[in-house]
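Customer escalation, tier 2.

The customer says the design service returned an amino acid string that "doesn't look like it belongs to this structure." They asked us to rerun it and document both sides in this ticket. The original structure tokens are below, unchanged.
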């Protein structure tokens, strides 16, 4: 979908840093298209952009307010709906990736119609998605997987695409979440797809290709998160990945939203993902590890990367901080030595 820019990014009254990942992702990867951020006085967070009111955002050229937050269940609280109304009154379109749809709120639909503005629901999946088959298909695909949700799978995916392209390889980012779709301009919101069609949606998102290029598919959730493991499983089967890259936030001790449930160990998590992926990709392998070390000093971040490398025997880096050169080296080395899979007839 084409969402008119520039954007004003919405933080609202959010206090959880992980909950503003959509606004943060747009600020990092589409910064030139963002004029500022809108947040209430009780919000201690920022994505590093000028703090603007709705009127100031519109005056600065913003054409769309992006509700760049994520909350449990993806619901729109009354205060958020009121802020969306204020954006429409100021002359801006409104875009959202929440599960509750803007177009399901009659007051917003009516006001947008009166103002000649648009409501964009990023989490509307495409119509007529197929059921997955798991049949072998040509092409090289990499899927990012995680020990938990919101650990940097999108950041790692985008960094890997950039790293592959820098080395002259063809590579495409295949977005599967609201933030990735807003950054890329296309994709499938896989957590809004009916369960029977998840693997088919990913087969359609990353179809067979014969140009030796890579599809880097953005992972979602975690096999070890009871709330989201179903989505992660469908992604593993639909992606039919040649390679997995494991993503992890070493500052976490427990699964997000479930403090009583411990995070899996890196080796445990990687082994489980490889096992599930083998249903449709028997030769899948691990290509590296990406850590989100944003809460650590540089020396400690480097130590954590070295520790993960020694534990798993794989290249490890913080993609945003240190790059992904070693992981790209691994991918291209195996690309030269391993025959490409062929599509079934």
């Amino acid at each position: 979908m084409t969402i008119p820019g520039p954007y004003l990014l919405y933080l609202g009254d959010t206090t959880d840093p992980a909950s503003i990942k959509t606004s943060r992702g747009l600020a990092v990867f589409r910064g030139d298209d963002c004029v500022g951020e809108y947040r209430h006085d009780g919000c201690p967070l920022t994505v590093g952009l000028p703090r603007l009111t709705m009127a100031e955002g519109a005056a600065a050229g913003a054409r769309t307010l992006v509700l760049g937050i994520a909350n449990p269940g993806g619901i729109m609280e009354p205060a958020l709906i009121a802020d969306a109304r204020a954006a429409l009154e100021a002359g801006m379109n409104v875009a959202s990736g929440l599960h509750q749809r803007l177009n399901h709120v009659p007051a917003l639909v009516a006001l947008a119609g009166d103002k000649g503005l648009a409501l964009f629901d990023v989490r509307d999946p495409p119509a007529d998605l197929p059921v997955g088959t798991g049949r072998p298909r040509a092409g090289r695909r990499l899927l990012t997987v995680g020990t938990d949700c919101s650990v940097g799978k999108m950041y790692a995916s985008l960094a890997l695409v950039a790293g592959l392209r820098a080395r002259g390889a063809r590579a495409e980012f295949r977005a599967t979440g609201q933030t990735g779709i807003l950054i890329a301009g296309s994709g499938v919101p896989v957590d809004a797809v009916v369960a029977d069609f998840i693997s088919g949606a990913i087969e359609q998102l990353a179809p067979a290709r014969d140009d030796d290029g890579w599809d880097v598919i953005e992972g979602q959730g975690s096999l070890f998160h009871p709330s989201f493991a179903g989505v992660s499983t469908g992604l593993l089967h639909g992606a039919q990945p040649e390679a997995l890259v494991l993503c992890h936030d070493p500052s976490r001790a427990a699964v997000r939203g479930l403090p009583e449930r411990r995070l899996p160990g890196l080796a445990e998590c990687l082994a489980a993902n490889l096992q599930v992926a083998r249903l449709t990709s028997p030769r899948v392998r691990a290509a590296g590890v990406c850590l989100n070390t944003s809460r650590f000093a540089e020396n400690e971040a480097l130590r954590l990367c070295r520790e993960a490398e020694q534990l798993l025997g794989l290249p490890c880096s913080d993609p945003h901080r240190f790059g992904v050169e070693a992981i790209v080296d691994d991918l291209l080395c195996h690309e030269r030595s391993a025959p490409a899979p062929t599509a079934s007839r």
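Tier 2 assessment: The sequence is consistent with the input. Residues 298-312 form the longest helix (15 residues). Confidence is low (pLDDT under 50) at residues 336-345. Sent an explanation to the customer and offered a walkthrough call.
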